[in-house]
Amino acid sequence: MSDSRSITVKVLGRDYQVACPPEERDALYAAARFLDDRMQAIRKRAAGLGLERIAIMTGLNMARELMQYERGETPRDVAPAEPAAEPAPRPSARASQRSAATTSAAEGSEADRIAQLSLTIRETLDDD
After folding, report:
1. Non-local CB neighbours of 29 within 8 Å, separated by 6+ positions
2. What is the CB neighbour count within 10 angstroms for residue 127?
3. pLDDT tier for residue 3 given thresholds of 50, 70 and 90
4. Is residue 97 part of a domain?
5. Residue 99 domain-assigned?
């Protein structure tokens, strides 16, 4: 991330400065819009909750949905955009092993990104 630049994203009406490489800028803006939509939905359902509580509930919901998706389940809170004609074929055992090996090799950088994102969220919430 040596070529990172600071960009501003808006979540729940508040601006946040986030360092981001230029090639990931569009994805970060999309992620911020997605996060904002999810947090707005929780805010509407449970008026009066503080920002930290909304963030934690949103994060837990998204983590649960990701885990369901990784198990091949459709997350309960998220309807598919359109019905699929037929389910995608399951990968062969060998393809699954190759995928697992690739994922394992890349986990270090993924874990680093998640840790950095968690730190950024904590620092942002502490600024409140």
Report:
1. 7, 9
2. 8
3. confident
4. yes
5. yes
- DSSP string spanning 32-51? HHHHHHHHHHHHHHTTT--H
Please report, as a single letter, which amino acid is at residue 18. Answer: V
Contacts of residue 121, defined as CB under 8 A and 6 or more positions apart, other chains included, come to: 55
Would residue 102 count as lying in a domain?
Answer: yes
- Those residues whose C-beta lies under 8 Å from the C-beta of residue 67, and which sit 6 or more positions away, are none
| Model pLDDT, residue 40 | 95
State the Cα–Cα distance between residues 66 and 60, nearest whole angstrom. 10
> pLDDT per residue over 46-66, tens digit each?
888 999 999 999 999 999 999
**Amino acid in the structure at residue 89:** P
Tell me which residue range forms the domain holding 115.
93-128
Q: Per residue in 11-24, pLDDT tens?
A: 999 999 999 999 99
Mean pLDDT over the full length of the chain: 75
Report H helices in 1-128: 25-45, 51-70, 93-126
At 83, list the tokens.
């019905």
